[in-house]
Amino acid sequence: MGFLDREHSVAGPGWSRWLVPPAALAVHLSIGQIYAYSVFNKPLSRLISGDVQAETGAAGDWSLFQVGLIFSVALFFLGASSALFGKWVEREGPRKTMFASALLFCGGFLIAALGVSQHQLWLVILGNGVIGGIGLGLGYISPVSTLIKWFPDRPGLATGMAIMGFGGGALIGSPLGTALMARFAGDGTLGVGSTFLIMGTVYFLFMVFGALMVRIPAEGWAPAGYVPRANAAGGMISNHNVLVDQAFRTPQFWLLFAVLFLNVTAGIGVLGQASVMIQEMFSDKVLGAGAGVTAAAAAGFVGLLSIFNMAGRFFWSTISDRLGRKPTYMVFFVLGTVLYFLIPLFGNLASLALFVAGFCVILSMYGGSFATVPAYLRDLFGTANVGAIHGRLLLAWSAAAIAGPTLVNGFRDSQIKAGIPAAQAYSTVMYIMAGLLIVGFVANLLIRPVASRYWAAPPAGQEPLASPSAADD
């Protein structure tokens, strides 16, 4: 399969770099379906009872906590595979990586469909969680690294274009999954098994399209008129490169690891349980008979969050090109803290509009943090190994994928067992999320330019511009 090799994907003279974003979007919109996985949670937890409206399942049904493990495992393996295969992605190029991602991510759906039909949770976790999660990781980092190389003049815009597709995956995945489950509701699995088979096939076709379209720039290519320069305001943009193994040893890497972990933990648990949460916080018991949020309306809420998740990735990363990465993260942490403190109040007031608006803003910043962090890495460590460094940093995502849903689902279950109504079971965890963001604010505040002892030697005959504010301690 030589056409997948890196040397066969080098762009020729005159090839437009603006053809790369559609290729990236084809992959990221597909793998971003994981953000819509919550629409499957209720049906998966009622496969034996066959009644998605029932408050409790039948004997042998999986609990929501068990089903929530699928989402957590998928995102854990996303981060783990990104870290493990980061160097391989840089070496083999985006085409081979994106094709491998399609095989793994979509093959995972087929295995999960078998697990659903046999009511074997371990098979669903293996398919959508482990194998699909590895596909997520490969598909996630390869377009990001490629776009940063194509857009050195606008790295925030570039990463926003790539990663907004991942955030927008639920915009397609949520209504598609809901409609397919309704269409095949009589298949003996409440439509889940058939839906997995169809989605795996459709997403494979889109991802292969992206893999065949993508190109990498020729060695030494640069946009017309592009001149590398350091950011005079704060000196946070370096013209030096730090290789991945050296970057791993810097305090900046670990501070940024903490920044990403804390911000993602605060958002991912809510996102993974969004459909169930809004139905429980604004049920008929809260709003009155017939006025509660239905499963279809909850799917719409997940889709709306996806829009803001997607738009925030492009908006905030583009803003960061002007505002700077560090100040942009300061906004995330301050505004996010305030909103998490207010969410329980919105629930107590039974204000569905304020609740939805608050989470839309939160999810825009959640998505914005993912899109801005590759440019943050590029500023601190240069472009030479940015894909591999990004892959290792995504271990923070893996850790957050476990911590966030565990906090939300664990506190919900413990509160309900203690006799607290489901509508009020999420308040404590919202305050914990606000506390995590305060710690993240401090970690971001401590980030400084990378010390010169970590810089890689420039290529022979090339002398990069100095980074005047780079610390030497």
What's the quick description here?
The protein is 68% helix and 0% strand. By secondary structure, the protein is mainly α.
Task: Lay out the secondary structure.
Blueprint: H1 20-31, H2 41-44, H3 64-92, H4 94-118, H5 121-150, H6 155-167, H7 169-183, H8 192-213, H9 244-247, H10 251-272, H11 274-281, H12 284-287, H13 295-323, H14 325-348, H15 352-381, H16 386-393, H17 395-417, H18 427-445
Helix pairs in contact: 1-5, 1-6, 1-7, 1-8, 3-5, 3-16, 3-17, 4-5, 4-8, 5-6, 5-16, 6-13, 6-15, 7-8, 7-13, 10-15, 10-17, 10-18, 11-13, 13-14, 13-15, 14-15, 14-18, 15-16
Protein name: MFS family permease
Pfam family, one: MFS_1
Keywords: Membrane, Transmembrane, Transmembrane helix
Would you mind describing this structure in some detail?
This is MFS family permease. Residues 1-452 form the Major facilitator superfamily (MFS) profile domain. The protein is mainly α. The chain has helices at 20-31, 41-44, 64-92, 94-118, 121-150, 155-167, 169-183, 192-213, 244-247, 251-272, 274-281, 284-287, 295-323, 325-348, 352-381, 386-393, 395-417, 427-445. It has two domains: 6-50 and 62-213, Up-down Bundle (Growth Hormone, Chain: A), CATH 1.20.1250.20; 244-450, Growth Hormone, Chain: A (Up-down Bundle). α5 packs antiparallel against α16 (386-393) and α15 (352-381) packs across α16. The longest helix has 30 residues, at 121-150. The protein starts with 19 loop residues before the first helix and ends in a 28-residue tail after the last helix. The model is unreliable at 464-473 (pLDDT under 50).
